[in-house]
Amino acid sequence: MVMKKIKQKLDTQFTCLFCNHEKSVTCTMDKKSNVATLLCKVCGQSFQSPINSLSEPVDIYSDWVDACEAVAEEEAKLVENGKSLLDAGDGDVDGDEDEDVKAKDEDDY
């Protein structure tokens, strides 16, 4: 008698780390461009990660958890020194400082 190996199903919907809604985060995997995207359908939070042929949605979720923990750790270190991640940069969140200045100038008229 041959025993059939039972294949366990891995989760494909996850709890959002930001709004805590269960099964609100879904993963889309673009194997052509080797990029996976997590998206919360409740709060809109998203995360992208590189993938390979063996990657599964749970791996991307795990990468997101690790990335959030790394940011929280870095923020905790900065707070100990009296700073914040928001203070650490130049304030140009989207990287287009020139456009921000131009838009501000146009609003002045």
From TrEMBL:
InterPro entries xrefs: Elf1, T_Elf1_sf
Keywords per UniProt: Metal-binding, Nucleus, Transcription, Transcription regulation, Zinc, Zinc-finger
BP term (GO), one: transcription elongation by RNA polymerase II
Pfam families, per database record: Zn_ribbon_Elf1
Subcellular location: Nucleus
Principal subcellular localization: nucleus
GO cellular component: transcription elongation factor complex
SUPFAM superfamilies hit by this protein: Zinc beta-ribbon (SSF57783)
GO MF entries: RNA polymerase II complex binding; zinc ion binding
Stretch list, region Disordered: 85-109
Compositional bias ranges of the Acidic residues kind: 89-100
Free-text function comment from the UniProt entry: Transcription elongation factor implicated in the maintenance of proper chromatin structure in actively transcribed regions.
Family statement: Belongs to the ELOF1 family.
Name assigned to this protein: Transcription elongation factor 1 homolog
Natural source organism: Eeniella nana
Origin organism lineage: Eukaryota, Fungi, Dikarya, Ascomycota, Saccharomycotina
